[in-house]
């Protein structure tokens, strides 16, 4: 049986609910209307947030600049309290950024060459991004491929888009002409160096149709070369790594060329030119057209180059394929990219980190995949993401067989990123001596001895 009190409570409750409903209808009428238009509701929210301006400096031009400008516009539309002031400096960028730093006007976020990333972080110019991203729930080491963050002693001083690696490009038309098997595409079991050389011999012909080893072969009258020797320091790096060598030893305190592996690799490159006779020397190479045109002309059968070459080949309509790099003792590759840093002087580091995460994240900003490789592990390991990226781009079928494993498992951070004083030790000293060696006027032991002597006292270790 219901008591008089319970009846009163029920009646009062109904009246209270009715009043609340009427109040909501009257009080929220305008807001409900503007929520439909998508303006007032957003303004009401952002009015309570502090207005923030983030400055962003980089050197990109052309299509990449356009895509970044689109991303900035989208970010500001979603975050109306934030203004991103972008500046694109396509000439004399190094001078610009150094001038700004000297004047205490360092941009909140700026682009920088990969080899300066850790150095500037350790000198206090840039912030450690790891704690800023952890506040957003992102463990950077677990999320991004190493070439996108260059982790150093649990610190991350930069975040990159568009990491690159190296590939063996081969001229399918030439392979088909001579009935040759294509290179192996498994990054964990690529061609050996010897297999590559033997195939290069089958692609090399003089103007009379003779091949290397034929009695009448004329090495000064070659019509097509099987291979372009990887004589430049960038392309030679991973080949050295595959033979347990490098430009430096493990500690970065002495040359790594003064080793069995270093000698074997340097001799192998020399032999491509002077013994196997499948590659032009430096003088002849300068007379050839660019790589894409040389492939078109069937003047070159194979070359080692970066992933940036891929779309050039595609645009030119070249019949080509890609494969992992040939190896000596083990599979090897390198990956790196210029990087974005947040200034240690930024007044809004958390807001800068939020914008940087959006700008560089292919999940939030998929437009970057139009010209860049993903920087996250998930885009190489998640089949649906990988498929959407590759099918949405201008790639051949072998791309999916070769690239993901290289980027996610094989490629390492190269010495041009982590070796201190790299430009002097490798770009100047080692490269100059290697050039003399490959030009056939200096023997191998003299080359190595000269590198040891010229670099003495200049080794500073690795980051």
CATH fourth-tier homologous superfamily of the largest domain = Periplasmic binding protein-like II
CATH class of the largest domain: Alpha Beta
> What's the helix count?
23
Gyration radius from CA atoms, angstroms: 29 Å
Derived from helix and strand composition plus strand pairing, the structural class reads alpha+beta
The mean pLDDT is 89
Report helical residue fraction. Answer: 40-55%
Distance between the termini: 82 Å
**Unreliable stretches covering 5 or more consecutive residues:** 1-46
Largest sheet: 4 strands, mixed
Find the CATH topology of the largest domain.
D-Maltodextrin-Binding Protein, domain 2
Question: In terms of topology, how is this protein built?
Answer:
Blueprint: H1 4-27, H2 29-37, H3 40-47, E1 52-58, H4 62-78, E2 82-88, H5 93-102, E3 109-112, H6 117-122, H7 129-135, H8 140-143, H9 146-149, E4 164-171, H10 172-177, H11 193-203, E5 205-206, E6 222-224, H12 233-242, H13 260-274, H14 282-285, H15 291-296, E7 302-306, H16 308-315, E8 320-323, E9 335-336, E10 339-342, H17 349-360, H18 378-381, H19 383-391, H20 398-410, H21 415-418, H22 422-438, H23 444-454
Parallel strand pairs: 1-2, 1-3
Antiparallel strand pairs: 3-10, 4-7, 4-8, 4-9, 5-6
């Amino acid at each position: 049986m219901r008591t008089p009190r319970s009846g009163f409570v029920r009646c009062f409750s109904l009246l209270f609910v009715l009043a609340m409903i009427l109040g909501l209808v009257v009080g929220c009428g305008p807001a409900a209307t503007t929520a439909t238009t998508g303006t007032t509701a957003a303004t009401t929210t952002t009015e309570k947030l502090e207005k923030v301006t983030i400055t962003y400096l980089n050197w990109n031009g052309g299509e990449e600049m356009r895509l970044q400008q689109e991303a900035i516009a989208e970010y500001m539309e979603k975050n109306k309290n934030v203004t991103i002031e972008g500046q694109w400096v396509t000439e004399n960028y190094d001078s610009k950024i150094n001038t700004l730093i000297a004047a205490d006007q360092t941009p909140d976020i700026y682009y920088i060459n990969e080899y300066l990333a850790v150095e500037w972080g350790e000198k206090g110019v840039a912030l450690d991004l790891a704690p800023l991203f952890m506040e957003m729930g992102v463990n950077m080491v677990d999320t991004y491929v190493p070439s996108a963050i260059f982790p150093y002693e649990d610190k991350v001083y930069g975040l990159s888009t568009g990491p690159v690696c190296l590939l063996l490009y081969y001229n399918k038309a030439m392979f088909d002409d001579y009935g040759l098997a294509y290179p192996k595409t498994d990054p964990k079991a690529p061609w050996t160096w010897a297999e590559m050389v033997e195939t290069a011999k089958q692609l090399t012909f003089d103007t009379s149709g003779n091949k290397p080893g034929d009695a009448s072969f004329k090495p000064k009258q070659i019509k097509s070369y099987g291979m372009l020797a990887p004589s430049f320091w960038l392309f030679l790096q991973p080949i050295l790594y595959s033979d347990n060598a490098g430009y430096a030893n493990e500690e970065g305190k002495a040359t790594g060329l003064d080793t069995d592996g270093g000698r074997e690799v340097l001799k192998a490159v020399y032999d491509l030119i002077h013994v196997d006779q499948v590659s032009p020397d430096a003088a002849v190479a300068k007379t050839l057209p660019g790589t894409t045109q040389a492939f078109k002309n069937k003047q070159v059968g194979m070359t080692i180059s970066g992933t940036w070459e891929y779309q050039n080949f595609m645009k030119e309509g070249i019949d080509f394929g890609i494969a992992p790099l040939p190896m000596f003792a083990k599979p090897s590759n390198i990956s790196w990219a210029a990087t974005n840093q947040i200034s240690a002087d930024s007044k809004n580091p958390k807001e800068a980190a939020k914008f940087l995460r959006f700008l560089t994240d292919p999940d939030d900003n998929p437009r970057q995949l139009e010209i860049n490789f993903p920087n996250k592990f998930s885009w190489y390991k998640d089949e649906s993401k990988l498929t959407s990226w590759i099918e949405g781009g201008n790639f051949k079928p072998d791309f999916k067989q070769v690239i993901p494993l290289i980027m996610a498992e094989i490629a390492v951070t190269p010495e041009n990123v982590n070796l201190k004083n790299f430009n002097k030790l490798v770009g100047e000293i080692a490269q100059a001596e290697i050039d003399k060696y490959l030009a056939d006027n200096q023997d191998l032991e003299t080359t190595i001895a000269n590198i040891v002597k010229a670099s003495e006292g200049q080794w500073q270790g690795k980051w």
